Amino acid sequence: MTSSSPLVVADNLTRFYTVKSGAFSKPSVVRALAGASFTLEAGKTLAVVGESGCGKSTLARVVTMIESPTSGTLTIDGKTITPDDSSARAALRSSVQIVFQDPYGSLNPRQKIGRILEEPLVINRPSMSAEEREAKARDMLRLVGLRPEHYSRFPHMFSGGQRQRIAIARALMLEPRVLVLDEPVSALDLSIQSQILNLLVDLQDQFNLAYLFISHDLSVVKHMADDVMVMYLGQPVETGSRDAVFERAWHPYTRVLLSATPVADPTHQKDRIVLTGELPSPIDPPSGCAFHPRCWKADSRCQQTAPLLQSAELPAQPISQPSAPPEAGALNHYLACHHPEK
Amino acid sequence: MNTSLTDSAATDVQAPGRFREFWFYFSENRGAVVGMVITVLLILVALFADFIAPHSATEQYRDHFLQPPFWQEGGSTEFLLGTDAVGRDLLSRLIHGTRYSFMIGAMVVLVAASGGILLGLIAGFARGWVDTIIMRIMDVILAVPSLLLALVMVAILGPSLMNAMLAIAIVLQPHYVRLTRASVLAERTKDYVTSAKVAGAGPFRLMFVTVLPNCLAPIIVQAALSFSSAILDAAALGFLGMGAQPPTPEWGTMLSEAREFILRAWWVVTFPGLAILITVLAINLMGDGLRDALDPKLKRS
Asked: Are A35 and A88 in contact (CB under 8 A)?
């Protein structure tokens, strides 16, 4: 990969929702995404992992500009999106596209495959003729491993894996540079999963795509990711290259996630760490480190001060300046913990 | 990538046309086909009423008051279904009445459905106070008995067929608003709407191109049902003297005029009643079949 400047730079992105619980009570704020920073380069895959409700999908919605961030900035392809400015969105629409988890809900059941694929072109490339659009849609079908005559069929005639291929084809119609994959294979069965993952790897090589790969399946992440970001309650707790996170997982929460991954080896010694308690409510997050109520290493310091995301292998150095994004390589291993398990 | 799969299928299969596909599913429902045949026949009768009807709808034959149908004693083949109290040919009046019934049904459904779908889409997409205002107004309309409300409106506007149609359309509209809004709320959270948004679809495209076609199945059934209930309501208003005015050969008005002869001349009430029954039944059967054929979820691959 030749491009050195990152394609996507997120700096301290937050997304809060206001929830009214009744006419007389104060509206409460859900901190679905409470400050996430990361960079993503062309041709690379950043995997975002975490349990349900940790803000993974909110991050996906913010990055695809379905929702604007409450604060923080998002720079895509050199253009910056701030909470109050929505004009950049139309221009960036064709740079970022998304593939959803559920292939049964993500295709319009009333439209034929051809129309589904051509819709982004109809909206964003009005000068394109109908023949060009159709040719492009048929090419794209071939590219994702479907047959051109599938062009005039309805989504209900396809299996889950085929539908996901169609969803990927639609996302690629505008030739985006960033593809957000929101759990793209977790609704598919295992044999289909690997086909779709291989297709994604092929497409990444072919178009030099950057993937923001959201998943809760660590074995899939290990297969796909270049970098990994572990999130807990709307915040990244550990980020780093795949090898750093999988082999030198120092945050207790990452350890828990890794220990929960099933291994297909009967002789494998299970030393599973089982967490007690539920994921705390993002309406009322715990003081200090968000993980402290469930952490076995927590002490009074964890209850009072939140740990900053700091370089794990270098002397302390916060990364929240947009001017100095973390450099690629083994040294970009960051951690938010007072008691890393080194 | 799987090239062998792609190569083996280089020839493109021509997909069946839209109409043939529709007909394939529609024709599986025999009741619907019967309903459609009757409806088409009735529409033809309505279109060519001037040529089919043996007599004028309003001409009074002074020698033939309350003449029975031709197979009864005293009947003649000149007036196949007999005559009414002022000597008008019943068959000709029924044939011309088909025109009014279908015009009433079509106009009422057109006005009620287009207004209702528009309001429902706005309520479903806007949410908030716009939604609240629209839905509360619809609740108020629904809270008043429909025929009574239509009667009141016709009483205010003055009895005529046009005012009756307007009143019936307003009375039927809330059903469309509710149906559309409920479908919109269910559909707009789905991922395909989000992905259309990500592709850059504006609010109008989202409303009419992305979401509306997916809400149409219940609306079509409602349209078929309210087509028939519009005919019924117009007949009821006509029967009460608030709809079409004599000598218009509207079926409800004909029933109303025949009221006093129910015991003496059964044909003057039976045939207009049968005409209403057959029309309404045929349209309802067809509506059911339409739903089955138009809903892709009920189709087999």
From this structure: no
Q: Which of B 257-286 lie inside 8 A of A, CB atoms?
A: none
| Chain B positions in Cβ-Cβ contact with residue A148 (cut-off 8 Å) | 9-10, 12
Q: What are the residues whose beta carbons fall under 8 Å from the beta carbon of B158, sequence distance 6 or more? A: none
What is the side-by-side order of every strand in the sheet holding A310-311? Answer: A96-99, A178-182, A210-215, A45-49, A227-232, A235-241, A334-335, A310-311
User: Model confidence over A6-54: pLDDT tens digits?
Assistant: 888 888 888 888 887 777 777 788 888 888 888 888 889 999 998 887 8
Chain A: residue whose CA lies nearest to B198: A66
The total number of structural domains that make up chain B = 1
> What is the CB neighbour count within 10 angstroms for residue B101?
27
| Residue at B15 is within a domain | no
Q: Do A105 and B191 touch (CB under 8 A)?
A: yes
* β-pair partners for A36: A13
Segment A242-271, tens digit of pLDDT: 888 888 888 888 888 888 777 767 776 667
Closest Cα in chain B to A107: B192
CB of A175 within 8 Å of any CB in chain B? no
Residue A174: both structure tokens together: 């505008």
Q: Identify the structural domains of chain A with CATH numbers, from first to last.
A: 8-20+27-95+176-248 (3.40.50.300)
In a domain, B65, yes or no: no
Which is nearest to A8 in space by CA: A56, A50, A46?
A46
Quick one: which of A80, A78, A54 has its CA closest to A69? Answer: A80
Query: Can you give the residue range of the structural domain that contains B243?
Result: 29-58+77-298
Q: Is the pLDDT of residue A1 over 70?
A: no
- Higher local confidence (pLDDT), A315 or A88: A88
Residue B100 lies in a domain: yes
User: B32 vs chain A: nearest CA distance in angstroms?
Assistant: 23
**Contact between residue A46 and residue A211 where contact means Cβ atoms under 8 Å apart:** yes
CATH label of the domain that carries residue B149: 1.10.3720.10
Give dist(CA A27, CA A20) in Å, integer: 5
pLDDT at A211 over 90: yes
Task: Name which of B12, B195, B214 is nearest A170 (Cβ-Cβ).
Answer: B195
Is the residue at B13 inside a domain?
Answer: no
Which chain B residues are Cβ-neighbours of A96 within 8 angstroms?
A: 198
